[in-house]
Structure formats: structure tokens, C-alpha cells
């Protein structure tokens, strides 16, 4: 389905404020409430909107360290990769994981309280995951841009 200008405006508004009421959303996009609600239901049903969630403050939660971790495997075995991927799903500190091309097999985004906490996590959790032969960490010094939603090209 092609998105029209109003559909795009609804998606942009919801990415900025997922708790917007139907009334405020309708006002922002220039529709009355009933057609806006119908469009929103259609966007949800068609899979453009996967869900709604709160954006939590890392600093308020005491998670002051963000690390990007390149993980390499020495043996490329499908069962091993599947096991690795299953295990990382259960680790809350790993907030994102991508199977990537290049010198690494996976790129992880990890949060921790501080450097000591991250070091313990690296030693006791990351390095012992199935298939892992090498890890390389890059610590975030400062977040320049935070995920603000997907672009509607």
C-alpha cells in the first residue's frame, strides 16, 4: 500500500508522541476524529505500526555506559549462530544486535552502569556466549543523535 500525505503525517506524529490521543492526532493532521481513527487502525493492521512503547532514561536508571561490541566467530556454523542469537535474546543489557557484514559477525549495543560493571559483564557473559572467539568494544563518549523514529522517504 502506498502511504499518502496524511498517513505519513500520522506516522510522524506518533513517532514524536506515541501517547497522543486520537483527538490531538486528528487535529495535528487536519482530519476529524473518526477518519483519523480509521486510518490509524488501518496503519496498525497493515503492519506500519508494530507497537507502542515508552522511551526510558538511561541516566535516571543508572546506565551511564553504552558500548558497541563487534563479535567474531572462528567457526561459522548455523547451529552455533542460532544458539548465539537465542541466548542474546534473553540478555537485557544487550539492547540491540545486528548480524553484519565485514570483519565482525555481529554488532551489539550494550548498556552498563559503569566501566567496572561493563568489564564484569564482558568477562562473565559476552566472552562465554556460544561461538564467540573475539570481541572488540567501542565505548560511546557522547550520544550525538538518539533514535528519533524512522524516516518516511
End-to-end C-alpha gap: 14 Å
The total count of strands amounts to 4
Order of helices and strands: HHHEHEEHE
Per DSSP, the total helix count is 5
Helical coverage, percent range: 25-40%
- The appropriate CATH architecture of the largest domain is 2-Layer Sandwich
- Evaluate the radius of gyration: 20 Å
| DSSP strand content | 15-25%
Secondary structure category: alpha+beta
List the strand order in the largest sheet: 2-3-1-4
**Which residues sit in consecutive blocks of at least 5 with pLDDT less than 50?**
none
| Biggest beta sheet summary | 4 strands, antiparallel
Give the CATH level 1 class of the largest domain: Alpha Beta
Average predicted local confidence, pLDDT = 95
CATH homologous superfamily label of the largest domain: Lrp/AsnC effector binding domain/regulation of amino acid metabolism (RAM) domain
Q: Quickly count the domains.
A: 2
What is the CATH fold-level name of the largest domain? Alpha-Beta Plaits
**Overall 3D geometry?**
elongated
Structure description:
GO terms for molecular function: sequence-specific DNA binding. Keywords: DNA-binding, Transcription, Transcription regulation. This is Transcriptional regulator, AsnC family. Pfam families: AsnC_trans_reg, HTH_24. The protein has a four-stranded antiparallel sheet with strand order 2-3-1-4. A hairpin with a 6-residue loop joins strand 2 and strand 3. It starts with a helix and ends in a 14-residue tail after the last strand. It has two domains: 41 residues, Winged helix-like DNA-binding domain superfamily/Winged helix DNA-binding domain (Arc Repressor Mutant, subunit A, Orthogonal Bundle); 75 residues, Alpha-Beta Plaits (2-Layer Sandwich). The model has no long low-confidence stretch (mean pLDDT 95). The protein is elongated, with a radius of gyration of 20 Å. It has 153 residues and is an alpha+beta fold.
Amino acid at each position: 500500500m502506498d502511504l499518502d500525505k496524511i498517513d505519513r503525517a500520522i506516522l510522524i506524529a506518533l513517532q514524536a508522541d506515541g501517547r497522543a490521543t486520537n483527538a490531538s492526532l486528528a487535529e495535528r493532521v487536519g482530519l476529524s476524529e473518526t477518519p483519523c481513527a480509521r486510518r490509524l487502525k488501518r496503519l496498525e493492521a497493515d503492519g506500519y505500526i508494530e507497537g507502542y512503547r515508552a522511551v526510558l532514561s538511561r541516566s535516571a536508571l543508572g546506565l551511564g555506559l553504552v558500548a558497541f561490541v563487534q563479535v567474531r566467530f572462528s567457526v561459522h556454523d548455523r547451529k552455533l549462530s542460532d544458539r548465539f542469537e537465542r541466548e542474546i535474546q534473553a540478555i537485557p543489557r544487550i539492547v540491540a544486535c545486528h548480524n553484519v557484514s565485514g570483519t565482525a559477525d555481529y554488532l551489539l549495543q550494550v548498556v552498563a552502569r559503569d566501566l567496572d560493571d561493563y568489564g564484569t559483564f564482558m568477562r562473565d557473559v559476552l566472552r562465554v556466549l556460544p561461538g564467540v572467539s573475539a570481541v572488540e568494544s567501542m565505548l560511546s563518549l557522547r550520544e550525538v543523535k538518539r533514535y528519533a523514529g524512522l524516516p518516511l522517504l
